[in-house]
Specification:
Keywords: Kinase, Nucleotide-binding, Transferase. Strand 5 and strand 6 form a beta hairpin. Helix 5 packs across helix 6 and helix 9 packs across helix 11. This protein starts with a helix and ends with a helix. The protein is built from 13 helices and ten strands. It has 293 residues and is α/β, with parallel strands linked by helices. The longest helix is centred in the C-terminal third of the chain and has 24 residues. It has a domain of 175 residues: Rossmann fold. Strands 2-3-1-4-10 form a five-stranded parallel β-sheet, with helices on both faces. A three-stranded antiparallel β-sheet has the order 6-5-9. The chain binds adenosine-5'-diphosphate. The site of adenosine-5'-diphosphate has 18 residues, from helix 5 and helix 6.
């Protein structure tokens, strides 16, 4: 993954990527990227990239989770990552870690994130590269990405450096998404996510009825609940607008590649998790894990 994180960084800064990837990045790259730096001598990015494109059967899964804010990408991606033994990498978490630090980026990021806007591709790819490097040092392989890619440019950059096996697109009606975002809480001590919203909406206008129980914290977390600064109604609606403009085209990008698995959430975790395992053909794996527990 060292090659992957170096390539991601190079791609984000307009540096060396394969000619094919650069062609795909096309005009978007030209819009933002600084002048292209020549590849360092003796550092064959392209050759290294080919080496890293290992057949799926010889490595752990490389999956992406897409979906609107509040849909539950984090919940299902982290459950699957535990089941499959691969890291769950959420770029939103990387951004929040940076926000919580005293690093030079924190103030700049706070302004962007608290308005519900997207962080620049360059910053997000630097954060992701650092995370991949750390994982590689710890012997990680494979990943489930959550919240990345969020723009077609990010998808093209990722495509230029590694193979994504599958993209799961989680879907839920918009009124439910807003309620779920407003109900989100985080324990300021253990960092776990909860949701105090009880979703119970009737089916109407062709939309299905949805029932989702709240995901309440245990007693010891109860008094430490905090709400994300970007989970206010105004910011959530802005994030949904931005998702529709910037991130929905990413679905089309992967649909064209035949990698997109659409998944309409039928309800809360008790209904959705078994169905998701079923469509992913992973029921046996869950049973094996439970049996071994
Ligand atoms: P959401 O609940 O909207 O899915 P996340 O936790 O994934 O939120 O992300 C929180 C914020 O972090 C986003 O609103 C955005 O400002 C920033 N962010 C996360 N991932 C990306 C990305 N891939 N590109 C740009 N900005 C990102």
């Amino acid at each position: 993954m060292a090659a992957l994180q170096r390539l991601l960084r190079a791609a984000a800064s307009g540096g060396a990527v394969t000619a094919a990837a650069r062609r795909r990045m096309g005009s978007l790259a030209a819009e933002q990227a600084p002048p292209v730096a020549p590849a360092p001598k003796g550092f064959p990015f392209a050759a290294e990239e080919r080496m890293r494109r290992r057949p799926a059967a010889e490595r752990n899964v490389q999956w992406v989770f897409l979906g609107c804010p509040g849909v539950g990408k984090g919940t299902y991606a982290s459950r699957l990552s535990r089941l499959l033994g691969v890291p769950h990498i959420a770029t939103g978490d990387l951004v929040r870690d940076e926000l919580a630090s005293t690093g030079p980026l924190a103030a700049q990021l706070a302004e962007i994130v608290n308005q519900g806007k997207l962080v620049s591709d360059e910053i997000i790819i630097n954060l992701l590269s650092k995370r991949l490097k750390k994982g590689e040092d710890q012997g990680e392989s494979g990943f489930i990405l959550d919240g990345f890619p969020r723009t077609v440019k990010q998808a093209e950059i990722l495509d230029g450096v590694t193979d994504i096996d599958m993209v799961v697109n989680l879907k839920l009606r918009e009124d439910v998404l807003v309620e779920k975002c407003l109900g989100r809480r985080i324990c300021s001590q253990c960092g776990k996510n909860f949701n105090v919203a009880c979703i119970d909406v009737k089916g109407e206008d062709g939309l299905p009825a949805i029932y989702m129980e709240p995901l309440l914290p245990p007693n010891n977390c109860m008094s430490k609940m905090i709400t994300r600064a970007d989970d206010t109604e105004e910011v959530v609606r802005n994030r949904l607008r931005i998702y529709n403009d910037m991130s929905q085209p990413v679905e089309g990008f992967y649909r064209e590649q035949g990698k997109l698995l659409e998944f309409d959430l039928p309800g809360g975790i008790p209904e959705s998790w078994p169905k998701l395992l079923h469509v992913l053909n992973l029921e046996d794996q869950e049973e094996l894990k439970l049996a071994a527990a």
